[in-house]
Design brief:
homodimer, 599 residues, 5-stranded mixed β-barrel, 30% helix, globular
Chain lengths: 599, 599
């Protein structure tokens, strides 16, 4: 090694030692002709002093710009009394430089590398100079955190006797899923691989192969429009186990997350995690990934409004819908603009409008609301009692078909919470980790557009055993053995117990999903075949590793925990990808571009 | 868990316990009406007995076929005296079944799963039923070995304070390298990603970013013709370190391999590994990846033949070439057919023919060779003395330009060794691990066809400091700071110290490689730019993880250590990939197929 010590190592006990350090110049300060350089490496900082007594290196040091790379040799000196910095490991000493090698001078930086300043810089500029952005304390900390998280998970899974197995990413196209990246095959003209969206099929084959416990930190690919903080390639902690039931999976994942939180944040997460059925999660929180760090639960007022004079509610109820409400306590000071934003959000989710009551005083007659005049005393009293209404509250309603009403009011609940946090009337701690399982999802959804059922999770998901008959009668009423792991309102993973009986799987494809036989064969034929050769009961899960790292790092965007992320247009601004291909490349691959670049 | 014990757990001390086991039926045997089932799970085997006293499950067990999946509950019984199997953990007991659940019946197997039999089966059939092939003892052992190897490497690198960083695989096209897989971009019409051939550029950017020590078990992609045991996607242990010299890398990798061999094979590998310069490796073994488990070294007879009457040798020497020879001791009984095969191999490498001498007795006059009559007594004596020739030996020659002569005779050396092993006159142990470093490679090669120099390793490789001037004069004579790690004749990894000075890198691109400025800018512009913002000295390496696992597993092909490999035509015979894409998919991607499938 060129260096004798890192920049986070030297203390008073090293005084008078001759040392060699390497690193980046964090800053150069001139105090009365003496130059003080803060030298930074991955581990920390050390103060290096260039004295005019050593004129050659003193002059050279004068040319140093921030972020240049240097190697220095010198003598460790205790700092003078008033200049000791007790907050730094190396705060007791400085190194008096005797030799200086300038490895690499730094040009003028395109943006400052102090976190507070850099985070106000245009993200595209940061992405273009990602090698500089990653030098910042916060970003290098996030890289280190991700590495530690990966090690924690792998250690846990190895201890639990999972085998790490790598599965192919050059897979076949499965057009019914999310949009895929295609890869033309040179050796098979006119044919394409698809980049694997997940190792789902391969990991089930590994169970048939007798692996029993599989894991992989699997790179997965989805060609999505990159709204909502998605990336074209992402990493999931992918697992599958044989001879298990749901309880085994809960225990395994809880153990993994407890260790992960302990190893990375030194936080003790209590177990077992609460469990909510899908129905309960929707009813209480209006979401299948509820944030339970605050209450503001949804209440159902369908019975109270069964005979209401308010036609909007009544007609929904008559059609079998529901009326639900929340009390956003203390949000009675909501502005017209804020109401409008909420209403727009509700409408975007299919609501016709947003009914609400601003509570003033104790007497419902004094409350303010366009709907107040339609409500009977009994109805108002029911609201008041059940929602524990007090002066200054805001009551918000959703009336619609059950699932839609839940989703709308769940969204309104989150918006309300944000407004309350902004007003400092509520606090939602980033240091509180409310893990929970959501279970008993419906097995099937009805796709009204296509006029047929589609798998809510995926078509290999097993129904709850006692619901198999129901699956044939009304597939949306049958519960599946799927589970999601939710943290603070984010789904951080999900999976299911799979079907391992070929007859049942066949029935799901043909009789429930009504997929034509030839399509079943071309897409899933080999899996159905494999299930005839000794397939064990099995189930699995996939955890979103990028999302988990973002939560551990208390950062909003997964782009911050990915070393070289793509932009929303799928571009790597640093390396300039994607780009044009040569005619030769395309002809080798038997393809041509059929649309000009239109922008 | 459904089971109470694995199939490798129960002993005499569990007698009379009621247990539940799950697994695959390895075999069913009927002894006088009593059915004996060997039940197998990932961990081992347990004998389960179905007695006619329990008629219901006895009848059901009678229908079981090999490889069916069952769950049984029963009572542990000590085996009778003569039936104890001391070679099995569970050999003292059997489980008398009381309950049987048949989870999955197995169809008739397409091929037998005993290793010896299965390995004679057509590989395509095995690949089509990979989920069965992987159940075999040998294959499941290889999967477990790979998982263990990965864990060993990761633990070592974490202890050495390497950060694991994931880099993108959707990269830009770099058409000068190996052939790439292209991925059309939907969001950027007419543009393409290339699947990364290695994280080379990103890992160098991570060094500029100050990561200092990076590693990744990186999936890499090359669209090669899949001869010679290559796979389109493969895994490399990818590393890069800042502030190091070559010695630091040697020490780090030696530590990694020592731990890996200990953890997986319990073999102690001695360090430091021997080092050979490229020139020495070529001169002595005729290869830059020499197998040193046996000698048969090449000797140079150029001086001895300087005035030879044998025109073939003389004319080569007059043109500055060399004459080299090996003594394949004891191979004097080589057949005409074997000589022909060797000669063909030599010719395929550019030789005009293969000169050889079959040694009979002690007197050179009695030796047999078409070239004997041209050789002087002094020349024969030189051969005899320096090659320590004895009765029954075979002397083989190569005469050509130095590099070609070395390569040809190196190949002949390996062929000779194989023939000697076949004759049991030599043994090359699979349990001997001769690691070595090959260093001081030439920096540049001259591409006669293109009429210019090309980088021997890659264009970021640093020259040996004292050879920088030579690089400008004669680039092929300058040595690089590249290194290969070689094991038993296989290159298992390679890397280099990189250039971190933008001026030197620029000079290499423009003055040595003569790459036009615009091409340099479009391909490497961002790297050259990054090197102006505080780039530390750095170097790295990549180890071929698939090849290493194959060597650890004592298997010839990397296909055996990859869970789901592709065929030589790049096909996944199990899942049927690649396949056609829909018109909709192609139009979304702005491409069309321009050649019909021609087969």
């Amino acid at each position: 090694m060129k260096r004798t010590h890192t920049c986070n190592q030297l203390t008073k006990s090293d005084a008078e030692a001759t040392v060699t350090l390497v690193g980046w110049v964090k800053s150069v300060r001139d105090h009365g002709g003496v130059l003080f350089v803060d030298l930074r490496d991955r581990d920390g900082l050390t103060q290096v002093v260039f004295h005019p007594d050593y004129p050659e290196i003193h002059t050279a040091a004068g040319r140093l710009k921030d972020e240049s790379v240097i190697q220095i040799s010198g003598v460790v000196k205790p700092r003078e009394e008033g200049t000791i910095n007790p907050n730094m490991t190396t705060g007791e000493i400085e190194v008096s430089a005797r030799e200086l090698i300038i490895e690499n001078l730094c040009d003028t930086l395109p943006f400052p590398l102090e976190d507070a300043k850099a985070e106000k810089v245009n993200e595209d500029l940061r992405l273009q100079y990602r090698y500089l952005d990653l030098r910042r304390d916060r970003m290098s900390g996030l890289l280190a955190l991700r590495s530690k998280a990966s090690k924690s998970i792998r250690d846990y899974l190895a201890d639990e006797e999972f085998l790490e197995v790598e599965t192919p990413t050059l897979f076949k196209s499965t057009p019914e899923g999310a949009r895929e990246f295609l890869v033309p095959s040179r050796l098979n003209p006119g044919e394409f691989y698809a980049l694997s969206q997940s190792p789902q099929q391969y990991k089930q084959m590994l169970m048939v192969a007798g692996v029993e416990r599989y894991y992989s930190m699997a790179r997965c690919y989805r060609d999505e429009d990159l709204r909502a903080d998605r990336q074209p390639e992402f990493t999931q902690v992918d697992m599958e186990m044989s001879f298990i039931e749901r309880e085994d999976m809960y225990k395994t994942i809880e153990g993994l997350l407890v260790k992960l939180w302990k190893d990375t944040l030194n936080v003790d997460v209590p177990t077992p995690f609460p469990r909510l059925t899908y129905v309960e999660a929707m009813n209480r929180f209006g979401s299948d990934k509820p944030d339970t760090r605050f209450g503001m639960e949804l209440l159902d007022f369908s019975e109270d409004f069964a005979e209401s004079k308010f036609k909007v509610f009544k007609s929904v109820l008559d059609k079998g819908g529901v009326v639900k409400a929340i009390n956003a306590k203390g949000l009675g000071d909501i502005s017209q603009g804020e109401v409008k934003t909420m209403e727009d959000a509700a409408k975007a989710m299919g609501a016709k409008g947003l009914a609400y009551i601003v509570v003033r005083g104790d007497d419902p007659k004094e409350w303010r609301s366009p709907i107040l005049k339609f409500l009977s005393d009994a109805e108002l009293e029911a609201l008041k009692t059940r929602l524990e209404i007090a002066d200054g509250d805001l009551i918000l309603f959703a009336a619609s078909e059950w699932e839609q009403a839940c989703n709308i009011l769940g969204r309104i609940r989150l918006e309300s919470a944000q407004l309350l946090v902004k007003r400092e009337k509520m606090s939602i701690s980033e240091d509180q980790y409310n893990f929970l399982w959501v279970v008993d999802f419906p097995l099937m959804l009805f796709d009204a557009e296509a006029g047929r059922h589609v798998a809510a999770h995926h078509p290999f998901t097993a129904p709850v055993p006692e619901d198999i008959e129901m699956m044939m009668e009304d597939p949306t009423k049958a519960r599946s053995q799927a589970y999601d792991i939710v943290l603070n309102g984010s789904e951080i993973g999900g999976g299911s117990i799979r079907i391992h009986q070929p007859e049942l799987q066949d029935k799901v494809f043909k009789e429930v999903l009504k997929i034509p036989e030839d399509v079943v064969q071309s897409r899933f034929g080999y899996m159905l075949k494999a299930f005839n050769f000794g397939a064990p009961p099995h189930g699995g899960i996939a955890l979103g590793f990028d999302r988990i790292c973002a939560i551990l790092g208390k950062t909003k965007s997964i782009r911050e925990v990915i070393a070289f992320p793509k932009t929303q247009k799928g571009q790597d601004l640093m390396a300039s990808a994607p780009g044009p291909a040569t005619t030769r490349q395309l002809s080798d691959l038997h393809i041509g571009v059929i649309a000009e670049k239109t922008e």
